[in-house]
Design goal:
about 65% helix; single chain; globular
Length: about 240
């Protein structure tokens, strides 16, 4: 394949898994929030499997596509955040943690289901079967990466929400909440400052890989082992 055809093939394999993973992630947040007493997301139509109500064009499509085609070791993206009103939850601290865990949780469930589904495509060597298998492998990879990435203990990430909920004192929770304004800046720095410095220094500098790769590979290998899918981590 020439470069253009190769890039188109990569996008065709990763686009559907990426959009579905992000859609299910946000829908899970919305559904659990609704079940725990906050109707805000349901009233806004976010308890839905329709990608159009969750997708952010830049965060869900453009940026992940650029990272994928540029050979980034990890995909980074976002959807429209699901609004959760803390005061509507029946048990605010506990329920906020459960809402936060719902997104990564459904991603891990989908990774397992995709790993199991790979057994259904292993017996055929047709182009269609190989393309479907490629999508399923990408589905495992994307969901594992998305789950682990979102569990980073930084606000506004899901892991940051969980950490804030389990901190033992109100003072610690308040101080941790004040860091939210810096969370996205820290994430973008981890993703882009390393490559920028590397290009200046003429070497490869990757700040996010040593943080995410160990837990991602652990979860990926766990999925592979439990599903018997026999695939390898692709980033």
């Amino acid at each position: 394949m020439d470069d253009l055809a190769t890039q188109a093939h990569i996008l065709s394999i990763y686009l559907i898994p990426l959009v579905l993973a992000i859609t299910m992630h946000e829908a899970a947040h919305a559904l659990v929030a609704d079940k725990l007493g906050d109707p805000t997301a349901r009233q806004l139509g976010r308890v839905s499997l329709n990608p159009l109500v969750h997708v952010d064009p830049v965060g869900t499509l453009v940026l992940p596509g650029i990272l994928l085609l540029s050979g980034s070791p990890f995909l980074f993206g976002w959807a429209k955040p699901v609004p959760v009103r803390f005061g509507y939850l029946r048990h605010p601290r506990r329920d906020m943690a459960l809402v936060a865990l719902a997104g990564p949780g459904i991603n891990i469930v989908m990774a397992f289901l995709a790993g199991l589904a790979l057994h259904l495509t292993g017996g055929s060597g047709s182009d269609v079967a190989r393309w479907i298998s490629g999508n399923l492998v990408a589905f495992v990879t994307v969901n594992v990466v998305l789950a682990v990435f979102n569990m980073m203990p930084l606000l506004p990430m899901d892991g940051g929400r969980v950490l804030n909920a389990i901190l033992p004192t109100a003072e610690l929770r308040w101080k941790h909440a004040q860091t939210e304004k810096y969370g996205l800046i820290i994430l973008l720095a981890l993703l882009f400052v390393g490559p920028l410095l590397g290009s200046i220094w003429g070497t490869q500098v990757n700040l996010i890989d040593p943080i995410l790769r160990p837990p991602v590979e652990f979860m990926f290998n766990l999925v592979v082992t439990l599903t018997g899918s026999g695939i390898y981590f692709g980033f």
